[in-house]
Amino acid sequence: MGQELSADEKMTLKTAAFGAVFLVTNADPGLRAMVKESYAASGVIAGTTGVVRDALTTGGLPQVSGDSLAELEAAVLPALEKSVALLADRAPHELANFRTAVIGTAERAAAAVAGISPAEAEMLARIRIALGVPG
To answer: How does pLDDT run across 100-129, given as a tens digit for each residue?
Structure first.
């Protein structure tokens, strides 16, 4: 890569990736479902490599919160866009790895309980748009 990511840059990637899971789990909420969905997504994060793995598996958890789905979107979607720009600039060879990890975690979370609901499918589409990935 040439340059290490700073702690703040790593947290941006982590906020984006974990935030995508939060968006999907909150698109069709339910406590039991949220636990199953979060657990299902963790396997994808553990399987990442390189800079993406380092960013997503080291340090503390991101503080992603909001009283509504709209507030979560306002925090997470820009973090996804910023992460794409950051990786495109600093580690372009890692961008596909990041996109695959984020989409994989979000899809796995959405499918963990009774398949992907229409609300979850809509949120997955928004996540793909923020990542610059065609639907």
So the answer is: 999 998 998 888 877 889 999 999 999 999
SS3 68: coil
Do residues 102 and 131 lie in contact, with contact meaning Cβ atoms separated by under 8 Å?
Answer: yes
Best CA proximity match to 104, nearest among 28, 22, 27, 41: 41
Structural domain range at position 47: 7-131
Please tell me the distance from the alpha carbon of residue 115 to that of residue 8, in angstroms, as a whole number.
35
Is 1 inside a domain boundary? no
Structurally, how many domains does the chain consist of?
Answer: 1
How long is the chain? Answer: 135
Question: What is the token pair recorded at 82?
Answer: 């910023």
DSSP state of 60: P
pTM for the structure as a whole:
0.88
Residue 2 lies in a domain: no
